Amino acid sequence: MVKKTLVAATAITLSTFALTSCGSSDAASDSASDDGKITMGFAQVGAESGWRTANTKSIQDTAKDEGIDLKFTDAQGKQENQIAAIRSYIQQKVDVIAFSPVVETGFDAVLQEAKAADIPVILTDRAVDADPSLYKTFLGSDFVVEGERAGDWLVENAKDSDVNGDGKINVVQLEGTTGAAPAIDRAEGFAEKIKADDSIEVTASQTGDFTRDGGKQVMESFLQSDDSIDVVFAHNDDMGLGAIEAIEAAGLEPGKDIKIITIDAVKDGMQALADGKINFIVECNPLLGPQLMDLAQKVLDGEEVPERVLTDESTFTQDEAKAALPDRQY
Ligand code: GYE
Q1: Index of the ligand 1 atom closest to the CA of residue 211
Q2: Structural contact between residues 135 and 121, judged by C-beta atoms closer than 8 angstroms
Q3: Could you tell me the distance, in angstroms and rounded to a whole number, from the CA of residue 55 to the centre of ligand 1?
């Protein structure tokens, strides 16, 4: 275990973890092991989607490659499990805690506890709505921009998206987990951009909890109550893939009878895009492991890190998906 307490107490920048690990004596008596290795506690959301699976693998593989002792928990989509995991990392006196908050609110108390224990926290993937002094940095995508990219595509492709030919483009939205940053921000970015065209309207919007099953069930109910749906905007690929199943079961052709826009660009989504069942995907990069471990190193070295670290992302049309698929890692 590394002694960040030494860094804090002496306010000097220590160049190596080997050095930090033979420093302060009271911290030394706390440590679970004193081998100079970083111990990171990571509280993951769950395993709700292909994106999450790729994200988990990236974090675990990078930790292994870089000799970081990773304590990993899967909160199964429940905030209380995530808070319990973070508390247990505090008790175990890990060097650094990282997590991807299930929802935006309700983490203040546990973040205060980590701060009081002098354990730095790095947010990955999703943000919290809390005092920024409670965490060191936030690494992840700009979800508002992702929603905007989806909205821009629809505005640009409005004519083709009026499948029913009635001059109105009726969009149903499959939202991510209620209260989660990507669900809130993607809806916001999308809504902002579609304002540019009066004929586009979100006629129904409901959570599918970022899962394939959730997307399927919500889409089934949308299809039962409305036969004028032109477009599905799903906050992730998995829900879009669930919607495809529901659309096919209703005897309609996804991508043609109903246009589909999703976010993530995981392999299954990209395959459906290349097959013409999805029309446009906004990329959200799950491979955060290398940047996360790098930030952890820097924080524990006492280096300054930016408050916000963005990931690089693009978008895919059907032709672009065909070209990108052979090299797609996840
Ligand atoms: O888009 C979705 C996942 O937080 C960016 O969570 C992540 C989202 C991702 O379940 O597939």
Answers
A1: 10
A2: yes
A3: 9
Question: Ligand 1 test: best mutation among 44, 45, 51, 190, most atoms within 8 Å of CB?
Answer: 51
Q: Structure pTM? A: 0.89
CA dihedral 254, 257, 262, 265 (to 10 degrees): 40
Round to whole Å and give the CA distance between 291 and 275.
33
pLDDT of residue 309: 97
Ligand 1 lining (C-beta closer than 6 Å): 48-49, 51-52, 125-126, 182, 210, 236, 238, 263-264, 284
Summarised one tens digit per residue, pLDDT across range 254-276 is 999 999 999 999 999 999 999 99
Structure tokens that stand for 26 in this block: 């009271």
Banded model confidence at residue 29, pLDDT cuts 50, 70, 90: very low
**CA–CA dist 32, 231 (Å, integer):** 54
Instruction: Return the structure tokens found at 244.
Output: 């495809």
Q: Determine the distance from the C-alpha atom of residue 237 to the mean position of all C-alpha atoms in its chain, rounded to a whole number.
A: 12
Rounded-to-integer distance, Cα 171 and Cα 42, Å: 37
Domains of the chain: 5-141+285-311 (3.40.50.2300), 143-284 (3.40.50.2300)
